[in-house]
Write a structure and sequence with these properties.
single chain, Jelly Rolls, four-stranded antiparallel β-sheet, 21 strands, 21% helix, globular
Length: 355
C-alpha cells in the first residue's frame, strides 16, 4: 500500500477534486495516489479493480497522457511564479521600518530586516542553553509524537509521525523555555523590532526527522491565522546546525512589504508560492543562531536528507493589543485578543522586562 506524499500546489489547484481527496484520510485497505515533484509515482487501480481517484475531465486525461506532469511553464512563468493576490483581510498594509534606537540589532541588521524582511543573529544562544532547551523540548516532542502515532495515518494536518512534528505551547510544559523567551535576549530583540509593549503570541518546536523527503512549503506565518497588526515577529531558533541538506530555512527577500498574501490549503500546509521566486535565499545556521523575520516574510524549509533530526524552536511575538482573526464554518468572523495569561504573557511593558 502506498501513502500520500508531496502533491505540488499547482497540481492541486488544477484538480480541486484531487486536493479534496488528499485532504481526507483513506481507508486502511485503500492505496493512496502517490505524487512527488509533479510526477505520479503510482496512479493505478488497486488489485481489486477499484480506482482511488477518478476524474473524467479532458484536463485530467491530458495530465495522465503527459506522464502525470502539468504543461511546462513558458515566458515569465518559467523564471518567476506569478505574484499571489493579497489576503482578503489585507486591505491597507503599510510596512513600518525599524527606526531605533536599538538595544541588540546593529545598523546592518536593521537595514536587512527593513529591506529583506529578516535578519540573522548568529550564535546568540550559548551552547549550554541550547543543550537544556533540546533536552526539555525532546521530552515534550516524544510525548506529542506518540499521540500523533495513535491518530489515523499517523498525522494531524501538517504534522506527520516520523517525518515532521510541531510541538506547540511548550511554555505550558517547561518553566525553562518560558524563562528563555522572557530573557534579556528576547526583551532586546522585541524592543528593537516591535516596540515597548510586547507579548509572546505563539511558541512551538519543529522537528524534521531523518530522511524526510518533503518540504514544508512556501508560506507566511500570518497566512495561517491572520493577526492584526500583520507585522509581528517570528524568531526561528536553531537547536542544530542547519542548511539545505537537513531542511534549513529558506526565505523570499523583499516580499514582506506586500503584507499577507492569499494562501491555498494543501496536504502539506498552506502555500503562497508554487515554487521559489528568484529572490529566495537559503540560510546556513549554526545551533544557537536566531533568525528574526516578519510574519509577512514568505519562507519554507526543504527536505531532510540526512540521518539526524533537524531541530528548531519558533517563537512569535506581537505588540500588546494584537488580535487573531478567523472565520467560523458558518461564515462569522471572530476576533480574539492575543492575551492568554498562560501562553501569551507579556515580555515588555513600557520598555521594561516583565518576569
Amino acid at each position: 500500500m502506498s501513502t500520500a506524499t508531496a502533491v505540488p500546489a499547482a497540481v492541486l489547484r488544477r484538480f480541486p477534486a484531487l486536493a479534496r481527496h488528499f485532504d481526507r484520510d483513506a481507508a486502511p485497505d485503500q492505496p493512496v495516489l502517490f505524487l512527488h515533484d509533479d510526477l505520479v509515482v503510482r496512479a493505478t487501480p488497486s488489485r481489486g479493480g477499484r480506482e482511488v481517484f477518478r476524474d473524467d475531465s479532458a484536463a485530467w486525461r491530458a495530465f495522465c497522457d503527459n506522464g502525470f506532469r502539468l504543461p511546462a511553464p513558458t515566458g515569465r512563468e518559467a523564471s518567476e511564479p506569478p505574484d499571489p493576490s493579497p489576503h482578503e483581510w489585507n486591505r491597507d498594509f503599510r510596512w513600518r521600518p525599524i527606526t531605533g534606537p536599538t538595544r541588540i540589532l546593529d545598523e546592518a541588521a536593521c537595514a536587512q530586516y527593513n529591506e529583506d524582511g529578516y535578519c540573522v543573529l548568529p550564535d546568540v544562544v550559548d551552547a549550554a542553553t541550547v543543550e537544556i532547551l533540546t533536552s526539555e523540548v525532546d521530552r515534550l516532542e516524544r510525548e506529542g509524537e506518540e499521540r500523533l502515532r495513535g491518530m489515523r495515518a499517523g498525522r494531524a494536518f501538517i504534522a506527520r509521525a516520523d517525518e515532521i512534528t510541531f510541538t506547540t505551547h511548550i511554555v505550558r510544559g517547561s518553566r525553562f523555555v518560558r524563562g528563555f523567551y522572557g530573557s534579556e535576549l528576547f526583551q532586546d530583540i522585541v524592543h528593537d523590532i516591535i516596540g515597548p509593549d510586547v507579548r509572546l503570541y505563539w511558541d512551538q518546536a519543529v522537528y524534521k526527522k531523518p530522511h524526510s523527503p518533503l518540504p514544508f512549503p512556501w508560506h507566511q506565518d500570518n497566512g495561517y491565522t491572520f493577526v492584526e497588526p500583520q507585522q509581528y515577529l517570528t524568531c526561528w531558533i536553531a537547536l542544530t546546525d542547519s542548511d539545505e541538506s537537513n531542511g534549513g530555512l529558506q526565505l523570499v527577500a523583499g516580499a514582506h512589504t506586500r503584507g499577507t498574501l492569499r494562501h491555498s490549503r494543501t496536504p502539506l500546509g498552506y502555500v503562497c508560492y508554487d515554487r521559489a521566486p528568484t529572490t529566495a535565499r537559503s540560510l546556513t545556521t549554526t545551533a544557537g543562531t536566531v533568525v528574526c523575520m516578519s510574519a509577512t516574510t514568505p519562507h519554507q524549509t526543504g527536505p531532510n536528507t540526512t540521518g539526524e533530526v533537524r531541530r528548531a524552536l519558533v517563537a512569535q511575538f506581537v505588540p500588546d493589543g494584537a488580535v487573531a482573526i478567523s472565520r467560523e464554518a458558518n461564515g462569522r468572523v471572530v476576533r480574539l485578543p492575543a492575551e492568554d495569561p498562560v501562553r501569551q504573557f507579556r515580555i515588555l511593558s513600557g520598555g521594561r522586562g516583565v518576569r
